[in-house]
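Take a minute with the sequence and fold tokens given here and flag any structure token that looks odd. Thanks in advance.
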Amino acid sequence: GALCAASGGFAPLSIKGPLRGGKATIDAGDSSQLLTGLLIALPLCPGDSELKVENAVSKGYLDLTIDTCAAFGVVVERDAEFSRFFIKGRQKYIPANFHVEGDWSGAAFLVVAAAIAGGEGGLAIRGLKADSSQPDRAILRAALLAGAAPRFEGDRLLVGRARLQAFEFDATDCPDLFPPLVALASACLGSSAIRGIHRLRGKESDRAASLKAAFDALGIPVSIEGDRMIVRGGGAEGGVVDACGDHRIAMAAAIAALGARNPVIIKGSECVSKSWPRFFEDLASVSR
């Protein structure tokens, strides 16, 4: 029921409500974020809603959204295939105490940093939910494939330095893992393959092109073959990297620098403040 207009696809945006509910078909193949927004907003509409969803990706984030809505008294239902969502209208969000679990997207960089250059005794990461539905929890599977041995002991995730080997990994449902995965692959012996490049085009930069440019600059050959990124590892040489205004590119270059043979300079590194203002201070503690 809402009307939206943009200026050639860019801000300023003009939005006229209200949302009324109803039926709609959504192609969620590029991102789950539009669908997530609708799942949060539609319960407040005067009418019921049914969404038919095609090509749903990042399904873990959709379940996180549904679980969070439920924590505040709102019910969203879906089928087993994530192809249909049913939302009753005229619901109300009820205030509640809520624990925000740790962010696996950020923790992925620490997991890779510890696997590349962890100090004696490894690194202990607290605040993560071991059975989280966050898709980026898959960094544990990737690290295992590369030869690392992350493990939970109580509330701590322990990661130590490892002899890393080439791996293959499908990041279609966890595209934010591409930067730490490329950093991980840069330190592995052999050529690693990461699938899911089509999910990278709409990020803070053209993340596929930015990753290739950054790691090429560090002496790590990166090629794009269809929907796969091939990374020839062996350790970074060093060099100057342009972060392209993308916080995850800056972080990935910094992680790769831990194993570089020469200094690494990251231009525009201040962009990490978007998601992790103390990233460099925290990273410095990993290899002490």
